[in-house]
Design goal:
- The protein has 311 residues and is an alpha+beta fold.
- The chain folds into two domains: 64 residues, Arc Repressor Mutant, subunit A, CATH 1.10.10; 160 residues, Chorismate lyase (3-Layer(aba) Sandwich), CATH 3.40.1410.
- 29% of the residues lie in helices and 27% in strands.
- It is built from ten helices and ten strands.
- The protein has a six-stranded antiparallel sheet with strand order 4-5-6-9-8-7. The chain has a two-stranded antiparallel sheet with strand order 1-2. A two-stranded parallel sheet has the order 3-10.
- β5 and β6 form a beta hairpin.
- α1 packs across α3 and α2 crosses α3.
- The longest helix has 14 residues.
- It is flat, with a radius of gyration of 34 Å.
- The protein starts with 7 loop residues before the first helix and ends with a helix.
Length: 311
Amino acid sequence: MSGLNKPLYVQIQEHIAELILSGKLPPESKLQSEREFSEELGVSRMTVRKALTELVSEGLLERRHGSGTYVARPRVTYESNELVNNLKAMRDRNLATASQLLEFSEVVASRRLAELLEVDIGNPLYRVVILRFANRVPVILERAFFPCSRCPDLEEWDLEKTPIFDLLVSVYGVSLSRISQTVEAVAANDVIAQQLRVEEGFPLLMLSRVFYNKVTGKPIEYSQDFLRSDFARIHMEVKWKQPNRSQWIFLPAKKKKTPYLSRKEVPHRNKLLCDFVSLLGKPLLQSILNGLRGELAGKKTSLLSIMDFFV
């Protein structure tokens, strides 16, 4: 290890990170226990634990309850505009993809779905749930709702092999005008955890989207995608527009004013000053101040500085 002036846990952390990034510790490799690390390196288990915790925070390691610590699988970085077609995005990265249709049903629009899809409450909707695999690992759970009147006969298509996005564009002739999308972190409930083969409470990224038809201006699809946080990360690039400097307003700093201290406003410490003044009386206090001018020359004369002479 290099950098012997660094804390021990940092040296251990950098050493393990170098083994991971160089490929000497491949993904899914199980690390030895903290006790074994401690004995091998001659350091405390607390030092080893801190190094491993830092690597877990960086996403290089992951802890599995009751099993141990493993080298994490590298995350796939998505551009935000790629998330409308998960299957294509995975294929573009040469991942071996597969899909499993978990549910295809017809449901009635609830109040919330009716508002999102701009249909009447009770209107028929297609509900589609698809599990996406990358290299045989379930990584994305897709839930989507479509107004039956806007996507007729959707059940006729093989949704496991054909991306729904492609069907909307090629078969139903939808020209998209815009996509409203939000991303938030959620914890997997028991159903989603079982489908994605993770523990309940596992951190996920939830993408909620509404697709709008350019011709009609109406929503064509509302979907929720749940991405495993150990599989994907999202990259967004923001174009910065420099504001007009002429519109900037600069305000000078406000000068602090020394507040007048009264018995009702001051804390106990300053109350003692008031009592001190009352005890001496104004004429006597002025005489003392005149006599101490030599001692207090070059200093700020205050009641506190006068009181120092009586302590």
